[in-house]
Amino acid sequence: MEKLLKEPFAGKMNILSIFRRLCSTVPVLGWLAGISAAVIAEYFFGDSLSWILGLPKIPVLFGFLTMLKEPLLIPGSIAYVIIIYIIPVFAVAAITRNLTNSLSEKLDKLPIAVSVVIHLTLFYLILHLWSGINDYRVLIVKLTLIAVILTLSINIINGYMGEFSCSHPGFMAVGAYSSSVLTLLLFTNDKLFGKALLPPILGHFLFPLIIIIGGFMAALSSLIVAIPSFRTRGDYLAIISLAFMFIIKSLIENLEFLGGPRGMGGQPDYSNLFVVFSWTILCIWIINNFVHSVLGKALNAVRDNEPAAEAMTINTRFTKITAFMFGAFWAGIAGGLFAHILRYVNPGTFGLQKLAEILAMVYFGGLNSIYGSIVGAVSINILGEALRPLELYKWIVIPLLLIIVMIYRPTGLISFKDFDVKRLLKPRQKKQ
Questions:
Q1: CATH: 3.40.1190, 1.10.3470, 2.60.40, 3.40.50. Which one for 135-423?
Q2: N- or C-end of the chain: fewer Cβ atoms within 10 A?
C-alpha cells in the first residue's frame, strides 16, 4: 500500500486519484482476492467486532438496515463497514496487484474458458461464504441473481429490439406456476395434486428440465402478445403486453386448481445458491452470445431502421418474434427459480409493482448493455432491501434517484457497451 501511495500521480494526490490508480492497475483477480479477505475477516471476526462497536449483531446488509432502524448505531455501523470491508478490500488489492497481474498473465495464455471458470469459482465461494452468515443474506443473493436474469431478458425486448413491453411479470408467472405444478405433481405429496408420482430423490436431477419446461411455456405464451402486436407499429405492443399481464394474473386468480387468489405453496427446496448462480451465469453467457450473433445483429438493424432492414432482406417480423420469445423464455426461467426460492407463489406478486421494479432495473442500468442490466438489477434490488426500514418512503427515494439518472443519463448508467469477457479478465499492468 505504501508503494502505491508513493508512486507519482498525474494530478493532485487525493482519495479519488488513488482509487483511479487502483482501478487501472489491479485486475479482476486482485479485486476478488481483496473481497475474499474481507469476507474471511467478517466470518472469523465479525461477531467480536460487532460486540466491540456496540452493535447487536453482524450487519446483514453493509449496515444500511441497522443505521435506518436505529440511528444511534450509525457510527458503529460505519466503522464496521470500514474495518471489515473497505480496508481489507483495498489493502489486499493494492498489496497483491503484482502477484495477481502475474497470475492473470498466465491465465491469459490459457483458453478463455479456464480463466472464466477460475474467476467464477472464486466469485461463487465469496458469495457462498458471505451469504452463509445468515439466511437473510442467502435470500437477498438469490433474489438479486433472479433480478439479473429478469433484467437481461427484458433488455432483449426493450433495449436490443427497441420496443416497449410490459408483459414480463406475466411471463414470469407462467414460468413460476408451470414449474410449480410439475414439481408438486411429480415429487411432493400435496393437498392440491395428491401423492407424488415419482420418488422425491429424482427431483434434484430433473429440476433443470422442469425449469426449462417453464421457460418454454412462457415463450409459447408470448406468441399471444407477439403475433397480433408485431403486425402493427408504434405503441400497440405496450398496450397489448400490459393487457396480457392482467389477463394472466386474473386467469390464475380464477383457477382453483392453481390455488386461486390464495396462491400455491409447498414447492420443494430445489433452488439453492449454486443452482440459482449457475442459471444466472448461463443466462449471461447465452444472452451475450445471442446479441452478438447474426440474429442479434439483425435485431439491432430492425431497431435502428426497420424499412432499411427489410430492404436488406432481413425478415423483420420473424426476427422480432424470435427475440420476443427468447426474452420471454428467460423470464419464465426466472419465474420458476423464484417460485422455488420462496416456495410459494401468489398471483398478486406478478402485478404492476413487479413490472415497475423490472422496468426500473433495466432503464436504470442501461439499454443495450449486459453490463448495464447487471448493474441495474444489483443496484435497484440491493437499494430496495437497504431502504426497507423506510417502508413507504423508499418508494419516494428510489423514483427520485431514477428521475435524476434519467435527466443526466437518459439511456441509463451503462448503455450500449459490449460485454467482452477476455478484456474484462486481462491483466492490468502498471502504466509507466
A1: 1.10.3470
A2: C
